Structures are given as structure tokens and as C-alpha cells.
């Protein structure tokens, strides 16, 4: 890549499959205006039937919805629909639907599952408007690969880890929010080293009994619009392409080769 290459606007590169990818979690979330009826089992029953073939396990959790501080909050139910292996999960709550996986295989597979969940939401829950769309990819380098991090990622993202102080840096994290050409779209990028048993987001990045290096990329829009499943999935695909473009800007050919790719 040239010095003036801009991953925020550049055409997406061809995908390089990584059979041993260090991708630990992928999450897509759609938020909509509050629908309190989602708390009721009889209301979400048809939605469950629509996705039960791929997500047969159901767990009910309690969650708090509302602003921070002294303002009133409300307790609601979150329904967690999982596959038998608990590698895929659809979460439904009064203000959002999320699809997440720890067993990502391809963009096409993920988007197909997302489309099925969103269409079931559209048919059986009927949200009127989309309030937010987000897509997040989390990679994690650990074990022996962590010792090679200076050749696995580009110098622009190494920061203190490329300096003589690297051995003393147990926690070093960069976080940057980028404005994208569509003024309502943003890309939040976090990367860096986290210590033994460390995490920056317990809900998505589990603590490990060893140090690791993370690359956490999240693209989102808070623009309110009509809830149209095909448009939402098309945007999610575009988000995935942009996040992959950014990922390829971060990593080197050595990274691709280490995780089974052919640069």
C-alpha cells in the first residue's frame, strides 16, 4: 500500500481467507424505538418459531433500559436464542436485536443469518423505524504470535510497542473515532496490548490468563430511517467491506500468512 492509501475510502480489497483467523467475535446490532411488548413470552413466540431451527436454545435475562444518572430506568427482558453449540446467538430486547458469533466462517454466511433474523423481526415484531445499525469485528492475537506483533501489524498502529519501552508496557491501547464520507456513519477503531486477565469490554472480549493484542473495529450509524430489511442488510454488507478494508490496512502479509492466508 502506498503512503497516501486511505482505508476509509479505498475500494475494498479482494478477501484473503484465513483458516486460522484470530477473529474472536463478530456482532451486528439493529436498534429500534422501544417496544415494551417484547417482554411478554406470548408476543415473541412467533419470532422464536421463525428462527428456532437454527437457534433452538432460549434463555431469558433481565436488563435495565434507560439513561444514566438519576433519571428513571426500566427493567426489561432480553431473550437469548442460541444454537446447540452456543457459537451463534440472536438477542432480542425491547430496543434492539443483535446477532453475534464466535464461529465466523464467511461474510456471506453471517449476512445470510443476519437477514433471516431481521426479516423475522420485521414480520413478527414490526418495528417502525431503525434507530441505529452497527457492525463490529474483534480480532485477538495471543500466545506465540504476540511475540511477533511488530511484524504482524503495520508500523502506524504499533505505537509504544515499536519502542524500547515495549517490554514494560502491559497495557497500551489506541482508540480513534473516524468520520466517514456519509456524514452519519462512523468507524471506531481500538487496538493495542491488554494485560493478563485484562479486557476493555467484558461482554465481548473475555479475559485471558495471558497478555494479548486486540483489534476492535466497529462501524455504525445513528441515522433514523424506515425499517426495511433489505436496505439494512445491504448497509451491513457495505459496513463489512469497509471494516475489512481497514483490517487489511492494519495487518501485514506476515499476519495473513501466519493465520493460513495466501497474500
Structure overview:
The chain is 25% helix and 32% strand. It has 263 residues and is of the alpha+beta class. The chain has one domain (23-258). Strands 1, 2, 3, 4, 5, 6, 7, 8, 9 and 10 form a 10-stranded antiparallel β-sheet that branches. A hairpin with a 2-residue loop joins strand 4 (88-93) and strand 5 (96-101). Helix 2 packs antiparallel against helix 5 (229-250). The mean pLDDT is 93.
Q: How big is the Rg?
A: 19 Å
DSSP, total strands: 10
Percentage of residues in strands: 25-35%
The main pleated sheet reads as: 10 strands, antiparallel
The parts where pLDDT drops under 50 for at least 5 residues are: none
The overall pLDDT, averaged over residues, is 93
Our measurement of the CA-to-CA distance between the termini, rounded to an integer number of angstroms, reads: 13 Å
Q: What is the molecular shape? A: globular
Q: Please trace the helix and strand order, writing H or E for each element.
A: EHEEEEHEHHEEEEHH
Number of domains: 1
Note the quaternary state here.
single chain
Specify the structural class.
alpha+beta
- Residue share in helices? 10-25%
Query: How many H/I helices?
Result: 6
Amino acid at each position: 500500500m502506498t503512503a497516501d492509501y486511505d482505508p476509509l475510502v479505498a475500494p475494498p480489497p479482494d478477501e484473503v481467507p484465513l483458516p486460522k483467523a484470530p477473529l474472536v467475535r463478530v456482532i451486528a446490532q439493529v436498534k429500534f424505538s422501544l417496544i415494551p411488548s417484547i417482554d411478554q413470552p406470548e408476543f415473541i413466540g412467533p419470532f422464536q418459531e421463525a428462527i428456532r431451527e437454527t437457534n433452538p436454545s432460549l434463555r431469558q435475562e433481565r436488563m435495565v433500559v434507560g439513561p444514566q444518572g438519576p433519571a428513571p430506568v426500566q427493567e426489561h427482558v432480553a431473550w437469548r436464542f442460541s444454537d446447540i453449540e452456543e457459537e451463534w446467538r440472536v438477542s432480542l430486547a425491547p430496543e434492539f436485536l443483535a446477532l453475534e458469533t464466535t464461529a465466523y466462517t464467511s461474510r456471506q454466511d453471517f449476512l445470510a443469518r443476519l437477514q433471516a433474523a431481521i426479516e423475522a423481526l420485521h414480520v413478527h415484531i414490526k418495528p417502525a423505524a431503525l434507530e441505529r445499525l452497527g457492525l463490529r469485528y474483534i480480532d485477538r492475537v495471543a500466545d506465540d504470535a504476540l511475540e511477533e506483533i511488530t511484524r504482524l501489524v503495520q508500523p502506524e498502529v504499533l505505537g509504544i510497542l515499536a519502542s524500547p519501552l515495549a517490554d514494560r508496557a502491559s497495557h497500551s491501547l489506541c482508540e480513534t473515532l473516524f468520520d466517514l464520507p456519509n456524514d452519519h456513519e462512523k468507524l471506531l477503531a481500538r487496538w493495542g496490548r491488554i494485560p493478563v486477565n485484562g479486557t476493555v469490554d467484558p461482554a465481548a472480549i473475555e479475559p485471558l490468563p495471558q497478555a494479548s493484542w486486540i483489534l476492535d473495529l466497529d462501524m455504525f450509524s445513528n441515522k433514523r430511517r424506515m425499517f426495511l430489511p433489505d436496505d439494512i442488510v445491504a448497509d451491513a454488507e457495505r459496513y463489512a467491506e469497509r471494516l475489512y478494508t481497514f483490517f487489511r490496512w492494519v495487518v501485514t502479509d506476515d499476519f495473513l500468512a501466519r493465520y493460513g492466508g495466501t497474500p
